[in-house]
Automatic annotation (TrEMBL):
Residues 202-364 form the Glycosyl transferase family domain. Keywords: Hydrolase. It comes from the Bacteria. Residues 20-183 form the Glycosyltransferase subfamily 4-like N-terminal domain. Transmembrane segments: none annotated. GO terms for molecular function: glycosyltransferase activity; hydrolase activity. It comes from Dictyobacter vulcani. Gene3D superfamilies: Glycogen Phosphorylase B (3.40.50.2000). This is Glycoside hydrolase. The keyword Hydrolase applies.
Length: 396
């Protein structure tokens, strides 16, 4: 099939949704399909045989897009719509695949061009607006809820990325076929780092020989980084040679959190190193004694958890629903979403390295069975075969 995919994201960027889109595209290409992707002008080049990227024109002054809803998305999404419309006018596609808010574009374009529409539901858009603190206006939130219901009801198929999103989608429709494929694909072809590479990073970051606790991902408010920083003084008292390494985030976020760390007297124990390429992530994972996910709210499963599990390192995570959809007491240490909970959890794991090692080993085995590329591709193939069969029926 020749697929038009619409993704209102900076592609490619080292964060959740673009990673997920990349792996879904890769799966489609493995099945023999071709993909034309309409996306933002922002992002690193991606070269995959069978993928053609059509970027919107550059908008002066917009060089990055924050995670979640923002004012910058309005002009960007408008241009995405017109580029997708242009592609449909000049090229014959078998179907459309859309991500996030582009589902609304898919509904309209499907109606105009008579193409079947598969919607990847990465989140409940109305909940995303609330959790990102974009607005508290009840009228706007209600309007977004109505748009989300329209997308779910009018799409010809839906891929939900976690149990909570699947349940939300099923609560909106009884007719649209809904499948769940976790965003669990990880790039298993990345080479394992050498001991020299890991030691080099330790030296570059001046980490000494003490334990390292690693966080990777965005620094949005719902990720709980404020809670994490509040927890560090208690851990620092017990383990004065400890270091926290935080990978990810934008400059303004890092500056705010650095100020907070100074106020709590733990700035010297934290390394904010910003965003890093995917290829470098195995080195940081190998560096860590404990992997952190201090998320404070939301119901979407953080993409980082699948990578964490595959690493075989012990995981310290807050016990909220977004995380317990994937993690259990057998694969991670789950603690209350508080500074005290995170501090006590870190101390407990550091004091009992054998238990920590066992948790990491359990996590790796669980990931290999449930969240491997093989499993992801198998689920994706099943969904696409069903969707293709529906296309053939419609054509007949």
């Amino acid at each position: 099939m020749k697929i038009l995919m619409i993704a209102p994201q900076p592609f490619m960027e080292e964060r959740g949704a673009p990673f997920a889109i990349y792996h879904h595209i890769k799966a489609l290409l493995c099945m023999g399909h071709t993909v034309d992707l309409v996306t933002y002008h922002i992002g690193k080049p991606v070269e995959l045989p069978g993928l053609h990227i059509f970027r919107i024109p550059t908008i002066p002054g917009i060089h990055q897009v924050k995670v979640g809803p923002s004012m910058a998305k309005f002009p960007l999404d408008l241009l995405v719509f017109f580029v997708a419309l242009w592609r449909l006018c000049i090229t014959r596609y078998d179907c459309m695949h859309t991500h996030e808010e582009a589902g609304a574009m898919g509904v309209l374009l499907s109606l105009i061009f008579g193409r079947k529409h598969l919607y990847y539901m990465h989140s409940d858009l109305s909940q995303q607006i609330v959790s990102s603190e974009f607005t508290k206006n009840p009228f706007i939130i209600h309007c977004v809820k109505l748009i989300q219901k329209l997308i779910v009801r009018k799409a010809h198929g839906i891929i939900a990325i976690c149990p909570d999103i699947e349940r939300t989608a099923r609560g909106m429709t009884s007719k649209t076929p809904i499948h769940m494929i976790e965003n669990s694909a990880v790039d298993e072809n990345l080479p394992a780092p050498t001991m020299e590479e890991v030691l080099q990073i330790r030296e570059e970051l001046a980490l000494g020989t003490g334990p390292v606790l690693l966080y990777t991902g965005t620094l949005e408010s719902y990720q709980g980084i404020d809670l994490l920083i509040h927890s560090i003084p208690a851990v620092y008292k017990v383990f004065p040679d400890i270091h926290y390494v935080l990978v990810g985030g934008q400059t303004a976020q890092i500056e705010r959190l650095s100020t907070m760390a100074k106020e709590f007297g733990v700035y010297d124990a934290i390394r904010f190193i910003g965003q890093k390429p995917l290829a470098e992530m195995p080195r940081y994972m190998a560096l860590a004694d404990i992997l952190l996910s201090p998320r404070s709210k939301g119901t979407n499963t953080p993409l980082k958890l699948y990578t964490y599990l595959h690493s075989g390192k012990p995981i310290l995570a807050t016990e909220i629903y977004s995380q317990t959809q994937v993690l259990s007491s057998e694969t991670a240490l789950l603690v209350p979403p508080t500074a005290d909970g995170l501090a006590e959890g870190a101390i407990a794991l550091l004091r009992n390295p054998q238990w920590a090692k066992a948790l990491g080993g359990n996590g790796r085995l669980f990931a290999e069975e449930h969240y491997s590329w093989r499993v992801f591709l198998k689920k994706s193939t099943y969904v696409q075969e069903e969707f293709s069969a529906d296309l053939l029926e419609m054509a007949a």
